[in-house]
Write a structure and sequence with these properties.
It is a multi-pass membrane protein. This protein has 23 helices and 17 strands. By secondary structure, the protein is of the alpha+beta class.
């Protein structure tokens, strides 16, 4: 074997032919006639990288499964679905004695107006599961004296009440029955007073304003209003959730149709981009401007149409937080805010296009080259489906585990009373409570179900299991994303480093790249995703602290927390950028994560101007493509679900909040478009890094030819011209500034 100007001369016995091999890691060899591929590019002769991180990741996954199994054995999701009575029993649960009693009844709803409700999330009154809510006002004394009403009244009392053996005062003393009933309606499976307002703002319950509470006192109907609000403080979010769930049940198939349309539009756009890249980019730019412009026009028309309407001049601040979000669309300020936001976006997009017009032309040429790469690796367009499936699996496992962990506590009972008592909020046992001295010292005290908790080791460390669940969710989700990036990068790198395209491209580049990533680089992917996950968990903790400190008056703490949140946000963005390019280098060279990250960083720093000219402008254009698809699908779904298309007005489902399916379709459309366009983005980033590497290793001579295509080489020339123009402009500015300074001196 002889050395020939940095080429290694190898003799292949089978072919009886000498081949000159380039001393790069790409394993390409040059014969006398052309460059041929001796081994599949990128590097095939690899070894396992970051083995320690691979082992750590496998152990973490096993621990994650153990936490899931433990949570599933201890948890009970029924606690989220069904309301519970004072003994912690589920109302309306199938297969239990309370199966036919789905509603929760409060003995004294007025006690729910206590501030204790906000602190303990529990009304300090007896709660009972009933079949139906009371429909009339009645006192215990009235029912006790009228035998015809006793059976009706007993269904709202505890079991075992015998009106013939106990007097009314004894029943009230033992807390077996409520002192009175009032007309109520079921609301989020709870019996709340049937409040209504007559003309003049008078609050009534069943056409009555004054009630006898059964203890010789008169109660005003307005007192029940505050009690109802306080009793519903915990379930208000559940009310919104149930309405949203109802909307999903009647519109899920329309949502699926909208997402399928988004997928079809994205696929058509990508296919057209493959053959008509230049035209499609310009069409996309114009369409984005038009779609945003239409949004501004629509908001202006809505703003104008509400002029003079009653209540339309109410401000969002005065309106406050409302569970019925459609109320906000009835005030002019909402549409004015939308119009201002869209106008700012429109101006920013137009200004960017004006100032980056030369870069846009260069970026379009790079997208054309990426289109050719995608055309030769068409299977890459369907790889995002695998990423979506894996991410859905990770999210589902995390959500189910979180629900089981949060519902794996035991029933905790506490002492509730309305007067001052030393035993207030102490734990108690409902079975033996009446035999203790607490009832003697605190006559009005009751042992009621408070919340779910526990004193075992499992319950003590439950918060750690929740934290582990969140951390592993981030780690697994980032690993799935990293796996997709490495797979696509390896496939597109094999396209770039094929000297004769498409003859030298491997048969199944996506499958080959996926196999290499899992076999050799699981540790590197786990290492990169671990670093990113740590930063994301810190950001979650900072958000948690921010929520806790909102009521605090320490301005320095708030300022420091805001600075930390900003710093870690920037750090997360930088790590994502570095990881992405590090994974490309891992896919090409097969080196460890740290080595690949270092090589990628310094390679980008040596080509920082090209990064700004080519890579980022291309990302901006692809983002406009995603924005266009989301805008088209979003506008169509808005007109459909809001019933503004007369032709399909009867077809549209009846909804509580029509923004629920619209928002779902918009978010889903963005994810789908992002999935398809991420293939292009990864292709552009991979070609760009390979392009920079090719420039540094080769000079275009016959001995060291470029692997880039002539079209990509033309982009290089345009980039150089752009750099020279920038330098020329800078020099001219410096010269003019110096001349002005000299004139000033003279």
């Amino acid at each position: 074997m002889a050395i020939c100007h940095n080429r290694i001369r190898v003799k292949i016995l089978d072919a009886k032919q000498e081949i000159k091999c380039c001393p790069t890691s790409f394993a390409y060899c040059r014969t006398s006639n052309h460059l041929s591929l001796s081994l599949s590019a990128p590097v095939v002769a690899r070894g396992c990288t970051d083995v320690f991180c691979c082992i750590l990741f496998i152990l973490a996954i096993l621990g994650y499964f153990a936490v899931g199994i433990l949570a599933w054995s201890q948890g009970d999701p029924r606690k989220v679905i069904y309301p519970t009575d004072s003994r912690g029993q589920f109302c309306g649960q199938a297969g239990t004695p309370l199966e036919k009693k789905p509603l929760l009844f409060y003995f004294n709803i007025l006690k729910c107006a206590s501030p204790l409700t906000l602190l303990e999330f529990q009304c300090p009154t007896t709660q009972l599961c009933v079949e139906s809510c009371p429909t009339k006002h009645m006192t215990l004394l009235k029912a006790y004296l009228n035998k015809g009403e006793q059976e009706y009244y007993k269904q709202f009392c505890k079991e075992g009440v015998d009106f013939s053996k106990m007097s009314a005062p004894e029943i009230l003393r033992d807390g077996l029955c409520p002192s009175m009933l009032m007309s109520s309606k079921p609301f989020t499976r709870r019996c709340l007073p049937a409040l209504s307002t007559m003309k003049g703002g008078v609050v009534v319950v069943g056409n009555e304003t004054i009630f006898d509470n059964g203890e010789g006192e008169k109660v005003n109907a307005t007192d029940f209003l505050d009690a109802s609000k306080k009793s519903n403080v915990v379930v208000e979010a559940r009310q919104v959730a149930m309405r949203i769930f109802e909307d999903y049940t009647v519109s899920w198939y329309w949502i699926l149709i909208g997402l399928v349309i988004a997928m079809v539009v994205s696929l058509i756009f990508i296919v057209l981009l493959r053959y008509l890249a230049g035209i499609m980019i310009w069409v996309m730019i114009v369409m984005v401007i038009l779609v945003i412009g239409y949004g501004i026009f629509h908001c202006a028309m809505e703003y104008r149409s509400l002029k003079g309407e009653p209540g339309s001049d109410v401000t969002i601040r005065d309106l406050g937080l409302q569970t019925d979000f459609s109320v906000y669309l009835q005030i002019r300020q909402t549409w004015l805010a939308f119009m201002i936001i869209l106008s700012i976006v429109e101006v920013v997009v137009i200004l960017l296009l004006i100032f980056l017009r030369k870069r846009v032309l260069i970026a379009i040429a790079l997208i054309k080259e990426a289109s050719r790469a995608v055309g030769h690796v068409m299977s890459s367009l369907f790889y995002p489906l695998l990423t979506f499936a894996l991410l859905a699996l990770v999210i589902a496992y995390w959500a189910i585990t979180a629900v089981f962990l949060s519902t794996s506590n035991e029933q905790v009972y506490k002492v509730f009373n309305t007067t001052e008592c030393n035993y207030s909020r102490d734990t108690c046992n409902p079975e033996t409570f009446n035999t203790t001295n607490i009832t003697a010292r605190c006559p009005d005290a009751e042992c009621l179900f408070a919340f779910y908790g526990g004193e075992t080791y499992y319950h003590k460390y439950l918060i750690l299991f929740q934290f582990y669940n969140v951390f592993l969710f981030f780690w697994c989700a980032n690993f799935v994303t990293a796996l997709g990036q490495v797979t696509l990068a390896g496939a597109f790198a094999s396209y770039y480093w094929a000297f004769k395209k498409p003859d030298d491209i491997p048969a199944n580049p996506i499958c080959s790249s996926l196999g290499r990533a899992l076999r050799y680089h699981t540790g590197s992917l786990a290492f990169g995703s671990l670093i990113l996950s740590l930063v994301q968990v810190i950001r979650v903790l900072l958000e948690y602290l921010d929520q806790k400190l909102k009521a605090a008056q320490n301005r320095f703490a708030k300022f420091l927390l805001s600075c930390l949140k900003c710093c870690f946000w920037c750090l997360e963005k930088f790590i994502k950028f570095l990881n992405r390019n590090a994974y490309i280098m891992v896919a090409i060279y097969g080196k460890s994560f740290c080595t690949s990250a270092r090589d990628a960083f310094f390679l980008l720093m040596r080509n920082i101007i090209r990064v700004a000219v080519l890579d980022k402008v291309t990302d901006f254009l692809l983002f406009l493509g995603k924005l266009l698809i989301v805008g088209i699908v979003g506008i169509c779904s808005f007109f459909f679900f809001s019933g503004r298309i007369k032709a399909v007005e009867q077809t549209a489902p009846s909804l509580n909040y029509y923004w629920v399916p619209i928002l779902t379709v918009v978010v889903g459309s963005y994810l789908i478009a992002h999935g398809f366009f991420s293939v292009y983005a990864m292709c552009v980033d991979t070609l760009f890094l390979c392009f920079c590497e090719d420039l540094e290793r080769n000079d275009g001579s016959p001995e060291r030819p470029y692997f880039m295509s002539p079209e990509l080489h033309e982009i290089l020339s345009k980039t150089k011209m752009a750099e020279e123009e920038d330098n020329k402009d800078v020099n001219q500015n410096k010269t003019s500034t110096n001349g002005e300074n000299e004139q000033c001196l003279h």
